[in-house]
Write a structure and sequence with these properties.
Elements (H helix, E strand, L loop, with lengths): L12 H25 L5 E5 L3 E3 L1 E24 L4 E6 L6 E2 L4 E5 L1 H37 L5 H33 L2 E3 L4 E6 L6 E2 L4 E18 L11 E6 L6 E5 L2 E6 L5 E9 L10 E18 L4 E3 L2 E8 L2 E13 L4 E6 L6 E3 L11 E5 L7 H8 L4
Parallel strand pairs: 1-21
Antiparallel strand pairs: 2-20, 3-10, 3-15, 4-6, 4-9, 5-8, 6-7, 8-10, 10-14, 11-12, 11-15, 13-14, 15-19, 16-17, 17-18, 18-19
Helix pairs in contact: 2-3
Length: about 400
């Protein structure tokens, strides 16, 4: 076999390696250039819920509490003497005036006690006369030398004891006379009947509970706050609170008293507030939640607390402007814990859009794309929807 016009060219291996290296570098550069040219690869995707606004608003800070409304006055009515109740004149839930009759005793029982008291008084008076006569005889016998000084001392002691028995019997008689003149059980305060313990015909002993009255024209809020916050809670400090029984309605008043000691075992301090209730709309026992407002600021520049970020020793927020994230160092002022909003002091303006919550890849200068529900919508449309394109 013949090979015609064949040329064999020998190329040095070093040139081949060099050419391969150059081609590889070119491919790498083309690849890197393609990645940099892809705008989606450098974007941080966020949703509309990740965008919050800076606004100017009224802020309040304070100490949160839970408590309970109670009647300002509670009185337990007890039996003044033993006897049978002829009638019970009121029922639970009824309102009574001061001095109004609540129940009545049977006259027979009261009259029997009055007669017994009169008899005891007569017996005591007779004993006193006998003791006085004995003292006079002892004194004469001592003067005649027929008795010893100790006999006179004994006679004087008997007379003193008899005199005390008379005074005690007189007091019992006066009390029985008073009971006989007033057979009813009067209300010591104006208020509502909270509890009735007896019924018609019941027999009670001295001190037995008959019923409980409460004064609800003025209610008292009793609540506890942490002892660490006691410097922020003083008489006269504003209180705002809500009641579970009246959703959506707010009540307010001022601290009336602060307990001088902490609650055992909890290190909480109890505070009290008086709440007028002239129409009787509120009742005792309602659960309350609220706070003692210790600071108020009008026209504060604020945003939700979730927009605040801690980076090292700095507090920062990220503002979205012209489709990019801007890192803004700020300081904080008043914190409204109830609204979860904080005052921001720094290079911000009302209406600025801030990123809140966890945003992976967030950094200063990052391209921000706001997802509005349309996957083809770009950052411009998203910014227009949220006002973040300023």
């Amino acid at each position: 076999m013949r090979i015609r016009n064949a040329r064999i060219i020998l190329v040095p291996m070093a040139l081949i390696l060099a050419a391969g290296t150059v081609a590889g570098i070119g491919c790498a550069r083309r690849s890197a250039g393609s990645k940099e040219a892809d705008p989606a690869a450098a974007q941080v995707l966020v949703s509309l819920k990740d965008i919050v606004r800076v606004d100017t608003r009224r802020l309040e800070s304070g100490v949160s509490f839970t408590g309970e409304l109670q009647p300002s006055q509670t009185v337990e009515i007890t039996a003044r003497f033993a006897g049978d109740l002829e009638d019970v004149l009121v029922r639970e839930g009824q309102h009574v005036g001061r001095g109004e009759a609540l129940a009545k005793f049977r006259p027979r029982d009261v009259n029997d006690q009055l007669e017994s008291a009169n008899a005891q008084l007569l017996a005591a008076q007779a004993g006193l006369r006998a003791a006085e006569n004995g003292e006079r005889r002892a004194r004469k016998l001592l003067a005649a030398g027929a008795a010893a000084p100790s006999d006179l001392e004994a006679a004087e002691a008997l007379r003193t004891a008899a005199d005390a028995q008379v005074r005690a019997a007189e007091a019992m008689k006066n009390r029985a006379q008073e009971d006989a003149e007033r057979l009813d059980v009067p209300a010591p305060i104006a208020g509502g009947v909270s509890k009735v313990f007896v019924h018609k015909g019941a027999r009670v002993a001295i001190g037995d509970p008959i019923m409980t009255l409460v004064d609800t024209e003025t209610l008292e809020l009793s609540a506890t706050v942490p002892s660490e916050a006691i410097a922020r809670v003083q008489p006269g400090t504003l209180i705002r609170f809500r009641l579970d029984a009246y959703p959506g309605e707010r009540f307010e008043g001022k601290v009336d008293r602060v307990n001088p000691t902490t609650e055992p075992g909890t290190r909480q301090v109890r505070i009290y507030m008086r709440l007028p209730n002239p129409d009787g709309r509120l009742v005792g026992g309602l659960f309350a939640t609220g706070r003692v407002v210790d600071a108020i600021k009008e026209n504060a520049q604020a945003a939700p607390l979730a927009a605040l970020r801690k980076e090292g020793s700095d507090q920062v927020v990220y503002r979205v402007r012209y489709g990019k994230a801007q890192r803004i160092p700020i300081q904080t002022g008043l914190l409204d814990e109830e609204a979860n909003v904080v005052e921001l002091i720094g290079d911000l303006s009302a209406g600025d859009s801030l990123l809140s919550g966890v945003v992976p890849g967030l950094r200063d200068g990052a391209q921000i794309r706001i997802l509005t529900g349309n996957p083809d919508a770009g950052a411009t449309n998203g910014n227009r929807a949220t006002g973040a394109g300023r």
